[in-house]
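In the design runs reported in the main text, the only information available to the sequence generator was the tokenized backbone. The following block is the verbatim input for one such run; it is reproduced so that readers can re-run the procedure and compare outputs position by position.
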């Protein structure tokens, strides 16, 4: 998805939905009123970031070798590198090095925003900035960022790439819960409110344990202060994810992040991108397509990602779709806060796990009943049922039945 800077008004009507009942019970936390700005907060913590030289980072990435390139965005390329972080004492660490394109003032603004915002935040669901490089020379400005390395790429890669294993239902839920917690932290848990402004699946990175971490803070902005309800700014972002009121008016608030989160919830459910031009016209735009399959309809299951069908909770999926709809209510004030989204997702995760336990229990019970039936028919001499082969394994809870290819391990019969 390409970033854009000017939007045209979209007159498409969006169906309004009432927020879920489980959401409305959660009271949002208030942002601490503080006269400090992000810049002032950054000055207090800038000593935590290491200042790298350009030569250090060029050596770490083998002169920015194309074979080490792991990503590329509108404002620069990202390389995998190896560098010593603790004054050369500890073993080298694997890092991600982002080299911004030399595109003048705009690129510098993105770089500066990332340094300042990531320099003040600290949360398990936000990518950690280790340091930066800022050098000006005869060959132009050099602006680089050094992050912790995320070995499992992005959420986008795992949802849409057929080259990677299918992302299981349970993992999808936990990833979205973690991402929601990261946004809630930005909105409510700092001395200053931060609006992420670019939430999308490609900006959700996954560590070795598939813990999600929000990355790319180049478009982040300070939220409104005092009695103000929004900040006014030129609309920027990625097509398909930005809230319609922000596109039309340039008024930015945390509700805009909530809308974007709802879009990604539908991507998780369907396995489809927000825009897929290769499909038939009525299926190209994800949000228009899913409206044909309401969450409370019998046809709802048709939107679920085919790769996870029969391996998910339909009840939890319906609730996730309702949550996505509530995130994208036309009136921003009627949308839930990210704190409320977090609480709703926790309930969905809990319900999904309970459903899975019941499914496992029923499946195990069915197998046990089948074994009993086979053994009963053998003992009565009915039909041509083969007699079970008894061995020492039987006493350890393992039964083997010839002819049925049936093997049950550690089951109580």
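Verbatim output:
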């Amino acid at each position: 998805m390409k970033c854009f800077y000017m939007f045209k008004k979209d007159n498409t009507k969006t169906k309004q939905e009432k927020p879920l009942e489980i959401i409305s019970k959660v009271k949002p936390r208030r942002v601490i009123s503080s006269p400090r700005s992000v810049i002032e907060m950054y000055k207090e913590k800038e000593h935590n970031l290491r200042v790298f030289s350009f030569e250090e980072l060029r050596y770490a990435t083998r002169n920015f070798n194309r074979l080490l390139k792991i990503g590329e965005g509108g404002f620069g390329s990202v390389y995998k590198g190896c560098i010593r972080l603790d004054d050369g004492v500890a073993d080298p660490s694997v890092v991600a090095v982002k080299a911004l394109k030399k595109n003048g003032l705009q690129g510098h603004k993105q770089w500066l925003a990332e340094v300042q915002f990531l320099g003040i935040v600290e949360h398990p669901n936000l990518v950690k900035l280790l340091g930066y490089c800022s050098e000006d020379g005869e060959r132009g400005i050099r602006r680089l960022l050094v992050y912790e390395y995320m070995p499992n790429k992005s959420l986008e890669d795992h949802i849409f790439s057929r080259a990677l294993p299918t992302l299981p239902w349970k993992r999808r839920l936990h990833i979205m819960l973690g991402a929601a917690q990261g946004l809630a932290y930005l909105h409510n848990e700092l001395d200053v409110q931060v609006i992420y402004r670019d939430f999308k699946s490609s900006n959700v990175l996954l560590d070795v344990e598939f813990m999600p971490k929000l990355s790319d803070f180049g478009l982040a902005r300070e939220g409104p202060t005092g009695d103000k309800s929004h900040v006014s700014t030129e609309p920027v972002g990625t097509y398909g994810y930005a809230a319609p009121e922000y596109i039309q008016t340039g008024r930015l608030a945390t509700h805009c992040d909530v809308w974007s989160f709802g879009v990604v919830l539908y991507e998780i459910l369907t396995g489809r991108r927000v825009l897929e031009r290769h499909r038939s016209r009525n299926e190209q735009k994800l949000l228009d397509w899913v409206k044909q399959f309401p969450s409370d309809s019998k046809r709802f299951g048709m939107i679920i990602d085919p790769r996870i069908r029969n391996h998910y909770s339909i009840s939890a999926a319906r609730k996730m779709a309702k949550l996505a709809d509530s995130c994208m209510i036309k009136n921003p004030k009627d949308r839930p806060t990210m704190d409320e989204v977090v609480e709703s997702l926790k309930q969905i995760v809990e319900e999904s796990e309970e459903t899975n336990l019941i499914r496992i229990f029923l499946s195990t019970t069915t197998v046990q009943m089948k074994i009993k039936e086979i053994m009963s028919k053998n003992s009565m001499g009915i039909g041509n049922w083969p007699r079970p082969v008894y061995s020492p394994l039987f006493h350890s809870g393992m039964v083997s039945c010839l002819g049925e290819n049936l093997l049950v391990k550690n089951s109580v019969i």
